[in-house]
Amino acid sequence: MAVCFVTGPPDSGKTGLAHELAARLTRRAWAVFQVRNDDDARAAAEHPARRRLLVVDDADTLPALRTLLLATAGDQGGRTRVVLLARRTTVWRDRLEHGTPALYALLSASPVLELPAAEPPPPVPGPTAGDPAPPAPGRAAVLATAMLLGAEESGARRGPVPPPGEEPADENLVARALADDPRFAVRVTTGLTHRQAVHAARLLVRIMSAGPRHASADAVAAAYARVSAQLPDDADVLETFSCHPEYLTGVFMRARVAVAQRAVALLDGERSRRAAVHVALADALRNDGRYARALESVGRALRLLAVPSGDASGAGPEAAVAAARTARGALLWFRGSFEEALDDQEDVVAAYRALVADDPARYRSALAQSLMNLGSSLAELGRAQDALTASAESVALTRIASDDAPTQVRLLLAKGLWNLGKRHAELGSADDAYRYTLEAVENCRELARDDPYRYNPDLASALSYLGARLGELGRPGEAARATAEALELRRRLAEQHEGYLPFVAQTLSNLGVLNAQLGRRRLGLEREREAVAIRRRLAASNPDRRLPELAASLSNLGVTHSVLGNATQALAAEDEATGILRELATAHPERHLSGLVKSLSNLASRLAENGRTPDAVDPAEEAVAASRRLTEHGGHQHLPVLGASLTNLAGTYADVGRHGDAVSAAREAVDILDELTRAQPEKYEPELALALTNLAVALAGAGDLDAALAGARRAERLRARLAGENPERFREPAERSGDLVRSLEAAGTDQAGGEPGG
């Protein structure tokens, strides 16, 4: 922030603010210049000081201002800060920017601090004697000074404090001010007017970007909590906090629920504004896991918007309804009601397309977000190609929007990119999935570099997705490194707020699987156990939301125990997971039946490992029956689940000697996977190879060696090609297929040689 405009009416405190700022920077060995005329400007520009502050009063009347600002724009070392004081910024600022790209770039990035008119001092009761008491600290002046000191830079201090005069260029001076004055945060947030409270919240969000490494971080957090929880009963202020969550980040998001509820009460009778706050309240409730309450709030918003209103609204009724239905679609998606969510999302996309046609710059980002949401629901409903199309359009629109407002839409672009990566992964395009996810990580790194407090959660999510994409490419070492970085970030976030614990557990579970794949099985087991412990604790307090996650962690723990040869522990973990999912699927089959199918198949495998192969038949058959129920209701989207469960059942039948049943199950699995592979070969060829292998084993058991050998050779060819493309992932399966072919060839030779002799 090289330049800052400070505007306000006479006696609003502009000059006093400049004096306080100058005093603070002088104590830090800065050279401070009061620029009143051209000679002052030249002297300041020629001074050899390493860091300097130029204060220009009545900036709109200084003839040499353009020259001074051009010199500031060319200062590559960031040595110069300029404070321009004026009553307003309108015409003269536009004149400065016009026709000079360097000045336009400099000034368009410069904040404008508008000071309110001075407030009369409070009445002093009773007579006073002697000298008048010194005035109370000017809250607006303290606040404005802090903003000028670099609140927009957010660079966290690293390493020891340098001597005065040798501060690094990226120093966050607000953090330094806090470290020097532990009461600074209290001063900033005490005795604020309504409007100053909003600015205080914005400032404190920026201060906290420095993170908890600073000694006064606790003081900042306490002060911010006061600002967010004890805001005045001013409808405008409360509405601002409710509808702009950037003022309430991380640990303070829960305050948004109470703030929005107060705003709704104060806006009684103003339908459009109340509807907007109800939507904001729904978003806050969703972030807190209260989905039913959130849906009620969205319903109230839509009912308010259904009644014609005379309220002035900056967005218009179409945009307001689209925003409310966007919120409802997201809530339905989180609850697993994907078809209902799709209805809202398709209508929202159509609404935003119409709005973009009239005002593209204003609504393009909203259309991009709605397309991203639509893609997620289409993917859940098995419409993978349609989902990819929607996600790709979303990213294309966001790239266009980033040309107009790169900072505001960079996070939207990052989220669009990792969602587009997921869509490619669902279609088996692992290379494209990796490429888009890597770009998302790069975008999030840039955002987090500027504002770690705000964007580290998104960087952690992007890294977690990158780990998944690298795992799909058969690069578990790189996947583990990306996932470990995500885990480190999420652990730090969870230290600040327990709301990040579910993400810690998810990342631990992913890392446990990757470590097991890398042969670091003991470490993988430790990660899985920690994930289960966290999710067990979370499920105890919020079972509706967290029990499915506990079941997933238990399944992963069972797999890791199985790899380590701990058959008993593996069975116990999977048995508990199956029990949880059986109850959940009974209550909400549309949300949990597919998870139960996978757990039942895993349970069959764990029983076989414990020497209880006959007992494995029942869960394997139950998994197939549940898969058929899914396909009856969901159609084509659940065929992969049915194919996998049939493959598993075929292997189980073969193990207990039911070779005819094994052949029937395996043939059906091959037919299903053949169909899926024709549409998406990259995704389903590995599963087809497994189904062909199981069919070969079943046919051999039934005595049809010729058919068994034909199926085994087809699986061998398929896996050999896959191993050529990705040896790290498919070399071992290819070798096993080769061994099976040779074994069947030998068995056929023995059978042929023995026929003459009977």
UniProtKB/TrEMBL annotation:
Domain Anaphase-promoting complex subunit, residue spans: 365-405, 549-583
Annotated Pro residues bias: 118-137
Alphabetical list of Pfam families matching this protein: ANAPC5 (PF12862), TPR_10 (PF13374)
Biased composition (Basic and acidic residues): 726-739
Domain of life according to the entry: Bacteria
Annotated stretches, region: Disordered: 117-138, 721-758
Name of the protein this chain belongs to: Anaphase-promoting complex subunit 5
Lineage: Bacteria, Bacillati, Actinomycetota, Actinomycetes, Micrococcales
